[in-house]
Amino acid sequence: MNVLSIVSEVFPLIKTGGLADVAGALPKALRPLGIDVLTLVPGYPQVLDRLPDRVEIGCLEGLLGHRAVVSRATTEGLDLLALEIPELYQRTGGPYLDGAGYDHPDNWLRFAALSLAGARIALGHLPLGSADIVHVHDWQTSLVPVYLRYRFQSSLPVVCTVHNLAFQGQFSIDIAPRLELPDAALGMDCLEYYGGIGYLKGGLVCSDIVTTVSPTYAREVLSTELGMGLDGVLQTRRAALYGIVNGIDADIWNPATDPLIPRPYDVRSLARRQENRAAVLQHFGLPDANGPLFAALTRLTWQKGADMFAEVAEEIVQHGGQLVVCGQGDAAIEAALRDCAWRYPDRVSVHIGYSEELAHLIVSGCDVLMQPSRFEPCGLTQLYAMRYGAIPLVGRTGGLSETIIDANEAAMARAVATGFQFHPVDPHSFREAVRRACEAFEDREAWSSLQRQAMKADFSWERSASQYAQLFEALQTAWQATAERA
């Protein structure tokens, strides 16, 4: 089976979040199951710099007024296509934001062009053959099934994966004539959304299957509270909605072989982890207070619960702990954390920004990794943390509730706990969870047992990839049967 995956970011070429990790790991996990994935990604500078040996395979004219060169390359087990449109993708900043942190004003065009190109490539408009299945991700590629259905009248099967429903690609109705779609695609039954254009809405309506990145989140998005205005649309697609928990790339995230950490270790050599803990403290300029080392590795936003970090830091300090924070986001949250670090210079340190190297260092050395998200489709950071023996402390929501077994008295007695959960997700419950973690840390033998249990948890892609494969195979069989009847 040949699957064309169309994404706006993919690790290791370019990454802003978990979407890139999934887009980079899932194809490799599907290959042993007989599914070959070809991934189409925009030709950002960061992408082209990592693919110096790419080979041009063809051109696509008429992409909403633009011409694209399409090149192919392989790297780190991925089969890739780069869509090279310099005027759209060769820019400073990131995939979605400019150097000043603002949305590129023509994001509607940049990702509509990517979607149109993806639809044409899937249909065989380049010398690659047509795809059996198309896999699109989030709003940036959600116009692919819209173009397939309304512009090309194609029934090629499409799976749309929603990594975070909060990001929907909503634009002014003024762009409608420039999308080169028939009027039928622009109405309430497809793209029209409260007087504007909703890219994700179109993808949800036009795809054959909709997946989210955990079963709990698949249920949550059907509610008014977490449906982000699309719960009504998702209710109509309920029979085609599936939740599949993300996995992690066990080759990249492996403490026994990780080249980005000072001292490799495994579940049998946890004592070596202390060297990484010391390296984390040194990097953040903190002395060792001999208490629990808490860390946060996240976007500094309300969704991630980062607005509570400064308040909860006081609880950590009062119990003899320390806190390091790595992330960027809302200016007010960043300022509050800087002020917190100023007030507790030996206990709190903050790094504004993100680097993959620092992420690996933090999970290899911190004692507790905090993830107090108010909603979290799946979450990958808590999975990395468990793999590295950093105990997750999470809000009970979405994929966090499914992947963590709370260290309550019964779970600790049975040696099945893997972290700490709290609910409701508010400062009071968060502080209570911090207190529980600090108290548990005092019994170092029990804490080591908790670490070992967390490290044994299996969140590789094997099971999740099998679920995707079953969906793909069922779609292909149904499509072939329909084609034969026609």
Automatic annotation (TrEMBL):
SUPFAM superfamilies: UDP-Glycosyltransferase/glycogen phosphorylase
UniProt entry keywords in alphabetical sequence: Glycogen biosynthesis, Glycosyltransferase, Transferase
InterPro entries with a match to the protein in the record: Glyco_trans_1, GS/SS, Starch_synth_cat_dom
Ranges where the Glycosyl transferase family domain occurs: 290-449
Presence of the UniProt keyword Nucleotide-binding in the record: no
GO MF annotation list: alpha-1,4-glucan glucosyltransferase (ADP-glucose donor) activity
Gene3D superfamilies named among the record's database cross-references: Glycogen Phosphorylase B
Annotated catalysed reactions: [(1->4)-alpha-D-glucosyl](n) + ADP-alpha-D-glucose = [(1->4)-alpha-D-glucosyl](n+1) + ADP + H(+)
EC number: 2.4.1.21
Domain Starch synthase catalytic stretches: 2-235
Positions that bind ADP-alpha-D-glucose: K15
Pfam families documented for this protein: Glyco_transf_5, Glycos_transf_1
Pathway: Glycan biosynthesis; glycogen biosynthesis
Function summary: Synthesizes alpha-1,4-glucan chains using ADP-glucose.
Record-stated family: Belongs to the glycosyltransferase 1 family. Bacterial/plant glycogen synthase subfamily.
Entries under NCBIfam families matching the protein: glgA, PRK00654.1-2
Protein's name according to its UniProt entry: Glycogen synthase
Taxonomic lineage of the native organism: Bacteria, Pseudomonadati, Pseudomonadota, Alphaproteobacteria, Hyphomicrobiales
